[in-house]
């Protein structure tokens, strides 16, 4: 063990590195025998990096492929693969033209071929070919409406799947009789495989009646021809697909736990689906930390209590910040004068809200130091200005873009300092 802060930063660095797409793809491919006629399709924000790693591992066994990622996310040519960039979060013409290439490739496969399908978050916007009677313009309009209405990703994607010829398991059907191996980097809490990138190669668990409920719940005003497309049911089973999750918030949490144990902490994972309001989560974490110091539970100290998830912020102020920064700033109020406690929270993609920080870190001195500097934490939270407050107390964590995206890692570290200081 070093200082709580140093250990916290080490836990963050090592656990994020365990879910970098390159490493995760390589580790999984080493375990699989995909034959020597492999065709690759990669979609999502991590598509280029996943495809590069796969090509480096499988070399000339890869006979061709298509990579579709967000503008600015590809890093040059990969031999033998076609690389495309397209619109995100709203699809555009390039989404359609590059998806057509992937569809042509899939339809041309025979039973001796294998498709390696690499999936990451953002895939819903980047991989799209509308069903007959639905235009790109329709897809753009409905996507915009869905992103604004407050529906969650499972609900949004239940609708997108039905307007699409490739989502909701339909892409895997096109590749039949070839086998499809799908490696997935999850950005959906609970790792619902049919929701991640709208599950192009996974049986859909949502039904048309769910879609009707979602339309009513958010009072969506959709044109008749769109409603018509939403009546078509999606595949409920696929017999040519195998799927592995190679990165997720659960994996980051497991890895954080292992690093904490190796540094000498007793460690546990409390949840991997934290999804409440960020400032409430901060207060809750602070109360757990106090329980540790005062009552030595749930773990014996020194200890690490680890959570994964994605909290939400209803932005009302005009300040600068992100959900992770807001969570720890809120927590600082509850661990005031507890010297043996640190609470940290980071987005694994290295970006927390519209800021250059990945998240934040606070300890028992943070609240006091802010007061000395004339900053009121409640005022800062009300103005959603966590960035500037944390900046004053060396509380920002900056990693730069990490190249992965598997939600957020949040944890408490407690050492054996017995008492609360006054
Ligand atoms: N001043 C602020 N304080 C706190 N949170 C904010 C502030 N401004 C924006 N946000 C939050 O930041 C969120 C966007 O953050 P971020 O870019 O990390 O998104 P994301 O959900 O991680 O998306 P992606 O999947 O593209 O990584 C918004 O949903 C909003 O709630
Ligand atoms: O692309 C999507 O649908 C989201 O990123 C969830 O995977
Ligand atoms: Mg993010």
TrEMBL record:
PANTHER family cross-referenced by the UniProt entry: GLYCERATE KINASE
Catalytic activity: (R)-glycerate + ATP = (2R)-2-phosphoglycerate + ADP + H(+)
UniProt entry tagged with the keyword Signal: no
Oligomeric and partner information: Homodimer.
GO molecular function: ATP binding; glycerate 2-kinase activity; glycerate kinase activity
Domain MOFRL-associated, first and last residues per copy: 8-230
Assigned EC number: 2.7.1.165
GO cellular component, one term: cytoplasm
Domain MOFRL residues, every copy: 303-408
Designated name of the protein: glycerate 2-kinase
InterPro entries recorded: GK-like_C_sf, GK_N_sf, MOFRL, MOFRL_assoc_dom, MOFRL_protein
TM helices/strands, residue ranges: none
Family recorded in the similarity comment: Belongs to the glycerate kinase type-1 family.
């Amino acid at each position: 063990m070093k200082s709580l802060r140093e250990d916290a930063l080490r836990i963050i660095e090592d656990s994020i590195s365990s879910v970098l797409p390159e490493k995760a793809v390589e580790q999984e491919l080493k375990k699989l025998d995909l034959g020597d006629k492999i065709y690759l399709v990669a979609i999502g924000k991590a598509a280029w990096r996943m495809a590069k790693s796969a090509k480096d591992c499988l070399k000339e066994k890869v006979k061709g492929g298509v990579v579709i990622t967000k503008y600015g996310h590809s890093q040059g040519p990969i031999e033998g693969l076609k690389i495309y960039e397209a619109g995100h979060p709203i699809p555009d013409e390039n989404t359609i033209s590059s998806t057509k290439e992937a569809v042509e490739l899939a339809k041309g496969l025979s039973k001796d071929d294998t498709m390696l399908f690499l999936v990451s978050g953002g895939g819903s916007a980047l991989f799209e070919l509308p069903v007959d009677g639905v235009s790109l313009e329709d897809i753009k309009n409905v996507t915009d409406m869905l992103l604004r209405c407050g529906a969650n990703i499972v609900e949004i994607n239940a609708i997108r799947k039905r307007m699409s010829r490739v989502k909701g398991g339909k892409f895997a059907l096109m590749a039949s009789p070839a086998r499809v191996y799908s490696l997935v980097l999850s950005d959906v809490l609970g790792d619902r495989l049919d929701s991640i990138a709208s599950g192009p190669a996974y049986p859909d668990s949502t039904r048309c009646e769910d879609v009707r409920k979602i339309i009513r719940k958010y009072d969506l005003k959709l044109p008749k021809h769109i409603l018509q497309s939403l009546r078509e049911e999606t595949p409920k089973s696929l017999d040519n697909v195998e799927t592995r999750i190679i990165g997720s918030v659960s994996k980051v949490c497991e890895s954080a736990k292992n690093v904490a144990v190796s540094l000498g902490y007793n460690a546990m994972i409390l949840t991997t689906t934290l999804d409440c309001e960020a400032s409430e989560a901060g207060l809750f974490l602070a109360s757990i930390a106090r329980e540790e110091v005062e009552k030595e539970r749930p773990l014996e100290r020194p200890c690490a209590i680890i959570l994964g998830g994605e909290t939400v912020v209803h932005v009302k102020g005009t300040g600068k910040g992100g959900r992770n920064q807001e969570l720890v700033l809120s927590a600082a109020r509850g661990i005031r004068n507890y010297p043996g406690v640190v609470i940290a929270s980071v987005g694994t993609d290295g970006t927390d809200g519209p800021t250059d920080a990945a998240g934040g870190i606070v300890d028992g001195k943070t609240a006091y130091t802010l007061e000395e500097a004339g900053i009121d934490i409640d005022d800062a939270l009300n103005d959603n200005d966590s960035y500037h407050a944390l900046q004053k107390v060396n509380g920002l964590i900056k990693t730069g873009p990490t190249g992965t995206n598997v939600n957020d890692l949040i944890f408490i570290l407690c050492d054996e300092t017995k008492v609360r200081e006054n």
